[in-house]
Write a structure and sequence with these properties.
With about 280 residues, this protein is of the alpha+beta class. It folds into two domains: about 140 residues, 2,3-Dihydroxybiphenyl 1,2-Dioxygenase, domain 1 (Roll), CATH 3.10.180.10; about 120 residues, 2,3-Dihydroxybiphenyl 1,2-Dioxygenase, domain 1 (Roll). Strand 2 and strand 3 form a beta hairpin. The protein is globular and about 50 Å long.
Length: about 280
């Protein structure tokens, strides 16, 4: 079954620029670097409850062409959710029965040239038309996986609090993420003051948040991956660190979720709307 969010994927034109931006934002160095002969370069930051993968096109291979096309069509930014499965074969059968038309399972491997270490995984992609435009994969890592979370100072990002998806059709989203993918719907709340209906799906220690602007009415447009909210142990220290790094940040304020405090990051995120959040002390 799907037990967590293995990673989120950001695509940008330059892997060097992506690595610099997110090393500064997260406060940590990548845990993995690799190149795919099909035409991509990748860095991965392994966090406590998920990972961030940044990918860029290199050369002129087929993967590079797909990545260039993706950037030309949708721009730089958040592109894919990759859920973790502890039974990929069983999940493929179940998701096929639920009408998500998963592709065949494919085995992959990657080598980090700095260390010579290799990692292996198997994955499948769901049909974009059944996931309402959001690219969704399911993945199983082969043990032992050399990617492991390393705890650091309290001003360093430790995990992903939530990922935000904008939806034109909230009931359609509930059916996909709840009934079909099996994520737990923890909260469904409409707030006219915010002009928003928010639905929170919990999985693996983080939240997939679906946001619908009430005043636009219900439509049939594709859903859109939109923003990321990173969590830190010490919000004040993280705020000070990012100010020192020269990033534009808002003052700390109370979060919309009870018991949280947040600030927004205005730049240095590759254009992705970004919050940093911590539990109020």
């Amino acid at each position: 079954m799907i037990t967590g969010l293995d990673h989120v994927l950001i695509v940008c034109p330059s892997i060097d620029d992506g690595e610099v931006a997110y090393s500064k934002l997260l406060g940590r160095e990548p845990d993995w670097r690799s190149h795919d002969p099909g035409g991509s370069a990748t860095v991965i930051f392994q966090l406590e409850n998920t990972a961030l993968e940044i990918m860029s096109p290199t050369g002129g291979g087929p993967l590079a062409r797909r990545l260039h096309a993706m950037i030309e069509q949708d721009g730089v930014g958040l592109k894919t959710l990759v859920f973790y499965s502890d039974d990929l074969v069983g999940d493929r059968a179940a998701l096929d029965r639920r009408g998500l038309r998963p592709e065949e399972i494919v085995a992959n491997e990657s080598v980090d040239p700095r260390s010579g270490r290799a990692r292996y995984w198997s994955r499948m992609r769901l049909d974009d038309s059944t996931t309402h435009g959001v690219r969704i994969f399911c993945l199983t890592r082969r043990a032992p996986d050399p990617l492991a979370y390393k705890a650091q100072k309290p001003d360093i990002v430790s995990g992903l609090d939530h990922v935000v998806i904008n939806t034109a059709n909230p009931d359609r989203a509930v059916a996909l993420y709840g009934a079909r993918l099996g994520l737990r719907l923890a909260l469904d709340r409409s707030n006219p003051d915010w002009d928003m209906r928010l639905m929170f799906f919990r999985i693996g220690g983080m939240t997939v948040e679906l946001a619908h602007k009430i005043s636009t009415g219900v439509g049939h447009q594709p859903d859109k991956l939109w923003g990321l909210s990173w969590k830190v142990p010490d919000l004040e220290a993280a705020h000070a660190r990012l100010v020192k790094e020269g990033l534009g940040v808002t003052p700390i304020r109370a979060g919309r979720r009870a018991g949280t405090r947040v600030f927004s990051v205005r730049d240095g995120t590759l254009g992705i709307p970004t919050l940093v959040v911590a539990q109020a002390g």
